[in-house]
């Protein structure tokens, strides 16, 4: 019996599972087997049950006859998906940028999904938390207003309904907003938002309808333990979890968010493949005020500075940040939405703090103070007075240095695909990403050019 080489790197902490690299073992009868836990076979195995992983599974199920397994160390919505604000906005996107077409395609697909829910006689608000709130990108200076006027022109030329609101028009749209002499806003009435928990539950329920046909299975609370490579082709042949061995006939897809870099590092560590996926966790806080009646909003809002917020720089306007914050590249910008349950959701922060998910009360204070600069009613309330209705969401956004997700096959492992690095845009780009990945696996024409998101040239 010929034995295959085996690689067992050190365990990776704070990841969805400890990834190892194995190879198939050939017997004298030329049969291939995996020694270990119970064995099951699927066409596609997806690692990660966030919004990206689940929508990829959904796309395979409705767009092909392939069988799909979804694996996660925890449960859906336990990562960045569940911690987000839920907006599907185009107002802060830039036409002509490398992510624009993917964002626009996803925007269209979300609209189509909401319409399909209505066609089933269901209420998109109840099923998805879907509301067409419209979005406002708010300026406070003359320079910001000039930039927003140009943005409105760009958005309109790109096919979106967009308009610039003067100070007086903005006051009419959002009476609770502090409006100064130079204030204005870019307004996209068609922008919407979702409730991530409801949306994920809806997608899961739809996916599970394929279980009875033998086409779908979930393996939650079952971290990945190892990856098995075929000794003959070099492709990934199976995923081994702590409780199961899942053979893949067609593709293995890593939709593992901010853990993707460390997982891929362990996977190829002692192989001939050169791969460095520079995804980093970028921590974010959101402040949720439940049953809060002191402030009501008509639309979703964010300050104009949020457009630059996604770059890893410290915002000088936050004067009370400590000097030690600079090493974390901490930034805070105002975002404000009302969720499907009527709760006020305020954000948002960005910082590099590793995989730490502990609440930082000083950041919550910054978020509250920043929101108070835009909404006078909030500045009149001490943060301590709302402790009984306050909740905090913490999420780790999967940050890529070039601002683009990585979507595509790994060179040298043609059936291994990555779909990660969407940073704060995972929900808004999920359906377009899912469509792109499935088209790649099935060899179908792409609706959106995938070249800007390729692994080659960015990660190897």
| Unreliable residue runs | 1-36, 311-326
Task: Specify the CATH homologous superfamily of the largest domain.
Answer: FAD/NAD(P)-binding domain
Under the CATH scheme, the architecture of the largest domain is 3-Layer(bba) Sandwich
CATH fold naming of the largest domain: FAD/NAD(P)-binding domain
Query: Which structural category do the helix and sheet elements fall into?
Result: alpha/beta
Number of domains: 2
| Number of E-state strands | 21
The major pleated sheet works out as: 9 strands, mixed
Gross morphology is globular
What is the residue-averaged pLDDT? 87
- What proportion of the residues form beta strands (DSSP E)? 25-35%
* Tally of separate helices: 12
Could you tell me how far the N terminus lies from the C terminus, measured between alpha carbons in angstroms? 35 Å
Helix content: 25-40%
Computed Rg: 23 Å
Using the coordinates above, name the CATH class of the largest domain: Alpha Beta
Short description:
By secondary structure, the chain is α/β, with parallel strands linked by helices. The protein has helices spanning 51-63, 80-83, 100-119, 124-128, 142-157, 167-173, 196-208, 260-268, 306-309, 361-374, 376-379, 426-442, and strands spanning 21-23, 25-26, 32-33, 38-47, 68-71, 87-88, 135-139, 163-165, 184-188, 192-193, 216-219, 224-229, 236-241, 244-254, 280-289, 300-303, 331-338, 344-350, 390-399, 406-410, 413-420.
